[in-house]
Amino acid sequence: MSDPNQRIVITGIGLTAPNGNSLAEYRANLLAGKSGVSKYEIRYIGETLAGVCNFDPLKYQKRKDVRRGTRAGSIAIYCANEAVQHSGLNWAEVRKDRAGVFIGITEHGNVETENEIFEISKFNYDTSVWTHHHNPRTVANSPAGEVTLSLGITGPHLCIGAACAAGNAGFIQGLQMLRLGEVDLAIAGGVSESIHTFGIFAGFKSQGALATNSEPTRASRPFDLDRNGIVVAEGGGLVTLERLPDALKRGAKIYGEIVGHAMNSDATDFVLPDPTRQAECMSLALSRAGIGPEAIDILSSHATATEQGDIEESLAIHKVFGDRASLAINNTKSFIGHAMGAAGALELLGNLPAFDDLMAHATINLDRPDPRCALPQIVANTPRKMDRVEYILNNSFGMLGINSATIVKRYSGE
Predict the structure, then answer these.
(1) Which residues contact 396 (CB under 8 A, 6 or more apart)?
(2) Mean pLDDT rounded to a whole number for the chain
(3) What is the tally of structural domains in the chain?
(4) Parent domain of 221
(5) Is 0.90 topped by the overall pTM?
(6) 50, 13, 17, 34: which is closest to 240 by C-alpha?
(7) Domain's final residue, options 249, 275, 291
(8) Are residues 182 and 223 in the same domain?
(9) Where are the beta strands (DSSP E) in 24-156?
(10) Residue 318 to residue 324: CA distance in whole angstroms
(11) How, if at all, do strands 256-265 and 402-409 pair?
(12) Would you please indicate which residues are annotated as catalytic (active-site) residues?
């Protein structure tokens, strides 16, 4: 890209995942094969399995703020503050009116409404006991808005509803706002509080798509013949995005440059994916990056451990990349479950350190590969040492046929 101000780089990373609360911890556990899935109990469902985060919300919030806000807000505040700290920005000198917050979400408000209905059921459904905090908690912009309150940001904030493609959508929105000149700093990515709403568990259970396993850490098994559904997870992954000249001017460490992105729609079904459209999404991202499929070194797959979803994505990947042996395909949901709006963000961020350590983390629990998901490049159970890692492609797809892909390049100083 000829205009350096159109080049957008990642300069800070904040995250919380079921198996780590910092990039270093998260990456170490991915390479060590450590799962974050555990037993979990939720109203009306009883005991199930979930990916539960264990970050400290009081690190950046007061107790009254936690009580007043939302779980998604606490996750977003934690991740945003961690990203700012990680970036090395002198926050006191940052123009808050030139900063923006762009957070992808799958859904928002379910948790608060379910909780309030449960509470008033104890009082014969007397709405006079309904909390006056309900409305600000449930508006769709709540997690991003809570970040602006925490960090004093007066620029724009948005939550992007994009089902399970939302993490990538947050990155893309931040990139576009920087390229348009609307902001000089974007805090972008995705968050999810999904494990706190029984409706999501009930919905997947009624579809026969909720994972079960006597060993929680072995429950999430994308591409495996014995997979039996989704492990619901919470989490968040946010980054600081800057224009390349701004990052270089302040001597920032650059974790990667977003060079390609795409979003499209299947327009075929509420739930079942379309591999043709998924393949077109990946191809469009490659075209915008100005590279061919042979340039991608690591492909972070979306696969959720649902039978048909894994098969369709495998068909799409094979259509674009064929059987090229040097490509490493991995899956992060096997470690943490499906973090919904945060999934794409966490999956990309967990792979970024590969630019430095040249390791493709594995897909764990892949003991009996499903022959219908015939991808010989899948990294199974043990990390793979790579000869090079120059480009990483991150897939995230969602219900109602929304597809997204981002491509990040190792920054080499050019």
Answers:
(1) 164, 165, 166, 167, 168, 302, 343, 344, 347, 403, 404, 405
(2) 97
(3) 2
(4) 7-249
(5) yes
(6) 13
(7) 249
(8) yes
(9) 37-42, 46-51, 99-105
(10) 9
(11) antiparallel
(12) 164, 302, 338
Tally the C-alpha atoms within 13 A of residue 252's C-alpha that lie toward its C-beta: 30
Which band of pLDDT confidence, cut at 50, 70 and 90, is reported for residue 1? low
- The pLDDT tens digits of the residues spanning 320-360 come to 999 999 999 999 999 999 999 999 999 999 999 999 999 99
Gap between the Cα atoms of 14 and 76, Å rounded: 9
User: 143 lies in a domain?
Assistant: yes
CB distance 255 to 388 below 8 Å: no
Each residue of 64-117: pLDDT tens digit?
999 999 999 999 999 999 999 999 999 999 999 999 999 999 999 999 999 999
R_g of the chain computed on alpha carbons = 20
Q: How far apart are CA 139 and CA 143, in angstroms?
A: 9
Helix (H) or strand (E) holding 319: helix 307-321
- Tens-digit pLDDT profile for residues 238-282: 999 999 999 999 999 999 999 999 999 999 999 999 999 999 999
Order of strands across the sheet with 99-105? 157-161, 99-105, 185-192, 235-243, 8-16, 256-265, 402-409, 391-398, 298-300, 328-330
CATH label of the domain that carries residue 266: 3.40.47.10
Question: Which residue, among 162, 116, 122, 153, has the nearest Cα to 137 in the 3D structure?
Answer: 116
Degrees, nearest 5: CA angle 155-60-75: 75
